[in-house]
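sry for the spam today, last one i promise. C-alpha cells for design, 392 residues
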C-alpha cells in the first residue's frame, strides 16, 4: 500500500515494514543542493587580471620609448629635483620657468656643454618636456598598477598563491623608479656632463625585467583562465640560456647609449673603414671593456648576431606549441637588427634610434611570452625544468 507522508512518499509492505528509500534519496539530494548553494564560486578573475597586467606592460613599453627619447635629446638632467607630488605639474608661469632654468644652469652639463651652444629658454623648455613627460608616465604606471592591485585584492580576485608575486612586481616598479633618480643624481655632481652609464643600464634593465615579468604573469593568468588547475609555468634551462644571451646584448646597448658610443662610427659593417676599430687598452682590460666607446660599439654590433642565433632557437623551439609567440620573436629581432644598422647609417637619427629602443622593449615582451610558452609546454609534457614556479 502507498500513502502520502508529508512531502515524502512512504511505501508500506504487507509485513508492516516501512521502506523509506525515497526519503533517504530525497534527503541526500537536498543536502547536495544545499552544499552547492552554500559553497561560493571562486572570486578569482585571472582573465581580468591578465588584461590589467597587459595594460600596465603597454605603459612600460611607452615609458621605455620616452626614456630613449629623453636620453637622445640630452633631456635627463633638465629637472634637478624629485618632487613626487608637486613635480606632477610643470612650471605654470614665466617666473616658474626662469627658476627651473636657473637650477639647470647650475649643473655641470649646462656649464660645460649646453652653454657653449647658447641655450635659450625655449631650448630648455624642449628638453624639460621630455624629462617631465617621462616622470609623469612613471607616476601613471605606478598608479595604474597600485590601484588595480588594491582593487583585485579587496575583491578577492587574485588567484591563490599569486599575491606575493604581485607585491614583488609593485616593489620592482618602485625600485626601478629609485634607480632612475639615482641615475639622474650621478649627472649632477662634480664635472659630470652625463649620467653614469652603469646607473643608466641598471635603470633600463630593471624596466625591461619588469616588462618581462608583467608579460610572464599575464600569460600565467590567461593559462589559469583556460585551465583552472594549472600551476605557474616553470623556467626551462634553454630559456634561461637565451635570456642570458639577450641580457648581454641589452646591457651592451645601454652602455652604448650612456657613453654616446653610437657616434663612434657611422659606417657598417666596417667601423671607420676598419673591421676592428682602434682601441686604447692603456687603462687596463676591465676599464676598456666597460668604458671604451669604440670597443663597446664593436661588441654590441657583433654580439647581436649571437643573440639572433639564440632567439631563432627559442622561436623554433616554441613554434609547434605557440606559433604566435614564435612569429613575435622572429619579427621583433628582425626589425631590431635592421633599425640598429639604420641607427648607425643615419648617424644616430633621433627617431630611428628611438624606434630601435622601442623594438628592444617589444623584443623583451616577445621573448618573455615565448619563454613562458616553453615552460608551459614542458609542464604539460612532464619534461624536466629548472624551476617549478614562474619568476616574480
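last one done:
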Amino acid at each position: 500500500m502507498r500513502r502520502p507522508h508529508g512531502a515524502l512518499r512512504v511505501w508500506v509492505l504487507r509485513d508492516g515494514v516501512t521502506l523509506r528509500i525515497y526519503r533517504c534519496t530525497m534527503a541526500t539530494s537536498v543536502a547536495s543542493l544545499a552544499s552547492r548553494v552554500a559553497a561560493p564560486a571562486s572570486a578569482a578573475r585571472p582573465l581580468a587580471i591578465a588584461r590589467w597586467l597587459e595594460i600596465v606592460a603597454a605603459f612600460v613599453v611607452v615609458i621605455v620609448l620616452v626614456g630613449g627619447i629623453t636620453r637622445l635629446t640630452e633631456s635627463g638632467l633638465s629637472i634637478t629635483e624629485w618632487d613626487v607630488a608637486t613635480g606632477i605639474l610643470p612650471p605654470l608661469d614665466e617666473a616658474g620657468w626662469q627658476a627651473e632654468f636657473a637650477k639647470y644652469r647650475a649643473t655641470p652639463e649646462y656649464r660645460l656643454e649646453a652653454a657653449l651652444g647658447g641655450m635659450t629658454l625655449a631650448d630648455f623648455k624642449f628638453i624639460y618636456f621630455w624629462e617631465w613627460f617621462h616622470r609623469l608616465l612613471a607616476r601613471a604606471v605606478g598608479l595604474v598598477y597600485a590601484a588595480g592591485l588594491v582593487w583585485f585584492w579587496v575583491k578577492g580576485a587574485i588567484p591563490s598563491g599569486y599575491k606575493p608575486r604581485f607585491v614583488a612586481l609593485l616593489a620592482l616598479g618602485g625600485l626601478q623608479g629609485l634607480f632612475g633618480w639615482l641615475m639622474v643624481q650621478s649627472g649632477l655632481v662634480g664635472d659630470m656632463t652625463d649620467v653614469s652609464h652603469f646607473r643608466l643600464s641598471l635603470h633600463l634593465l630593471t624596466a625591461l625585467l619588469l616588462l618581462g615579468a608583467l608579460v610572464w604573469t599575464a600569460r600565467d593568468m590567461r593559462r589559469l583562465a583556460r585551465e583552472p588547475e594549472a600551476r605557474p609555468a616553470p623556467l626551462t634551462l634553454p630559456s634561461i640560456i637565451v635570456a642570458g644571451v639577450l641580457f648581454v646584448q641589452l646591457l651592451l646597448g645601454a652602455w652604448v647609449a650612456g657613453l654616446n658610443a653610437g657616434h663612434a662610427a657611422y659606417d657598417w659593417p666596417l667601423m671607420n673603414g676598419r673591421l676592428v676599430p682602434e682601441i686604447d687598452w692603456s687603462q687596463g682590460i676591465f676599464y676598456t671593456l666597460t668604458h671604451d666607446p669604440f670597443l663597446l660599439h664593436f661588441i654590441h654590433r657583433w654580439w647581436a648576431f649571437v643573440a639572433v642565433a639564440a632567439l631563432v632557437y627559442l622561436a623554433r623551439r616554441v613554434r609547434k606549441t605557440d606559433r604566435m609567440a614564435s612569429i613575435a620573436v622572429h619579427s621583433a629581432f628582425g626589425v631590431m637588427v635592421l633599425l640598429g644598422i639604420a641607427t648607425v647609417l643615419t648617424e644616430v637619427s633621433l627617431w630611428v634610434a628611438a624606434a630601435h629602443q622601442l623594438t628592444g622593449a617589444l623584443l623583451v615582451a616577445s621573448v618573455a611570452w615565448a619563454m613562458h610558452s616553453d615552460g608551459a609546454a614542458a609542464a604539460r609534457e612532464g619534461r624536466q625544468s629548472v624551476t617549478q614556479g614562474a619568476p616574480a
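The longest helix spans residues 121-154. ok im logging off now
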